[in-house]
Structures are given as structure tokens and as C-alpha cells.
Amino acid sequence: MIILTWILLAPVLLGAGAIAVLAQRRAAAALVRAQAAEARAAGHARCLGLLAEELQAPGLALLGAAGRLGAEGEPVAAEARQVLRLADEVKEVLAASAGPRCLSEEKVELAPLLQEVLAGVAAQLGQGRRQWRLAADFAGLSVQADRRALRGALSQVVARAARLTREGDWIDLHPVVTSESLAIVVEDEGAGLGAEDLSAGAPTAAERTRGLSFGLAVARSLLEAHGGELRLEAQPGIGARAWLVLPRARLLAA
Q1: Residue 178: is its pLDDT beyond 80?
Q2: 122 pLDDT tier (thresholds 50, 70, 90)
């Protein structure tokens, strides 16, 4: 009886085993394909990031050179802004597809970081010149943050201020410390554009970042990864004020 049972069940058991092996092989093949696709996507993202950086540098340099030419430089400035808009669009695509950001946190002294950011933007402007005022109050202020991410957010906001100002205009940076937050405030004398782009009343993140210029969407996502936010105030024809806000708990020294 037992032998007969095994004879009857053997094909079923062997068939189930074969099906299981086939399923495992298919799952393994699917995993390999998924890993390959992820590697290709990462490679494309790196290429797009490099493209955005390569576009931003000459765009700023052209804008700076156009400022020295006065009214005759306006066609050059228009082309420079077009290049910068293209770089901005690439960055926003990358920011939207990046997903949650992993932070590598450390103690970051704000004064040296801001000096580095200003030097980088000034170098990209080439012969174009802006007047920078970095408040002495930054001395001694340190935060717990991802240095690279914070530098990226600051660079986007400061570069935007440089883009929307003219030769010789002032750009001021100063801290505002409250019981709940630390804000790095960037004020410029530019066109005062884009206040509506960061409207808190917009129902979704996509709508709140629609139309942001010069990487503000990227800066906003970097600050949100730190538990902070980016706010923008603007008055057409007068200028703009950007608030890069971090939670007070991130302030290490004051």
C-alpha cells in the first residue's frame, strides 16, 4: 500500500519540486534585472547631475560678463538665464526622483561654510561682481548637519540671488536665532521674483515647488531632509529674502 502511494504521489512531488526550482530561478533573474536597471538609473542620474553643474558654471559666468556691458549686455544676459533655467530643470528632475535623502551628519561651523559658498559663486560669476555682506554674528555658530547637503542648499539660494541681481548690487547674509529655529537669511536687491512659488497654501509638494528657479526645489528638499524648510519673501522691483530654516535642536554653539 505504501509503495503504491509513493508511486502515485511521486510525479506530483517531482512536479512541485520542479515548479519551485523554476520559480526560484525566475526570481533570481528578476533580481538581477532589477539591480542592473537600478545601476543604469544611478549612472544616468550622475550624468544629469554633472550636466547641470556644467551648465550652471558658464551660465553664471555669462551673466556676470553681461552685467559689465550695461544695456548692451542684455541679449547675453537673456541667453545666460536660459542656460541657467535649463540647469534648473535638470536639477528639479533629479530632486523629484531622488527619494528620501540619507544624511551624513557632523558638526558644521557656519562662518567657514558660508565663506566657501560665497567664494564658489563669485568664482562662477567670473568678472561679474556682487557685493557680499556676511554678518559677523555667524562667528561661533555651529550646527549638526550634513555639510555637503547644507552647502548645496546654500549654494543654490546664493547663486539665485546672484542671478537676479546686477553688477555691484549687495547681497546680505545674516542669522536669525529663535527658541524654535535657526535661520540663515539671504537678502538681495534683485528683481523680487518667485515669492508665490513657495506658498505654504499649496496642497502638494509638487505644486509648492512648481516653477522654482535656479535649484530652489533642490535646496528645499535638502533642508526638509534636516527637518527644516525654505521660505521666500519677495517684493517686485525691490528684492527678495530667502530663509533657510533649521530646527533649533541642530544648533550646537551660539
Answers
A1: yes
A2: confident
C-alpha cell belonging to residue 184? 540663515
Distance of alpha carbon 15 from alpha carbon 53, whole angstroms: 57
Tell me the CATH class for 38-253: alpha beta
Answering whether pTM is above 0.90, one says: no
DSSP string, the chain: -HHHHHHHHHHHHHHHHHHHHHHHHHHHHHHHHHHHHHHHHHHHHHHHHHHHHHHHHHHHHHHHHHHHTGGGGHHHHHHHHHHHHHHHHHHHHHHHHS-SPPP-EEEEEHHHHHHHHHHHHHHHHTT---EEEE-GGGTT-EEEEEHHHHHHHHHHHHHHHHHTS-TT-EEEEEEEE-SSEEEEEEEE-S----GGGG-TT-SSHHHHTTT--TTHHHHHHHHHHTT-EEEEEEETTTEEEEEEEEEGGGEEE-
Averaged pLDDT for residues 205-217: 49
Q: Where are the domains of the chain?
A: 38-253
